[in-house]
Amino acid sequence: MAEDLSRVQRLKYRAWRRGMRECDLVLGAFADVRLVGMSDAELDAFEALMEAPDDQLWTWILGTVEPDPEFAGPMLDQVIAFGREDLS
Prior knowledge:
It is a single chain. This protein has 88 residues and is mainly α. Helices cover 70% and strands 0% of the residues. The chain contains five helices and no strands. The protein has helices at residues 2-16, 21-34, 40-49, 54-62, 74-87. Helix 1 (2-16) packs antiparallel against helix 2 (21-34). The chain is globular.
């Protein structure tokens, strides 16, 4: 369990310090609220999503561009819904 908590802490840190402030705000807030209690598979999916370039991720959150298939899936859907809720 301690290992999982340190992984969550590392992911939260990365989510808040991506580079593009808009993505930091969405991913950081999402991480703070949702990461604790996620399964290893869900954490893997979030970690993979962290590899997406900020400028692309931001267009997906805004809904101006369809997500790349390699990043599309339930985790991205959750982040998009969270970000859009926060934007409205």
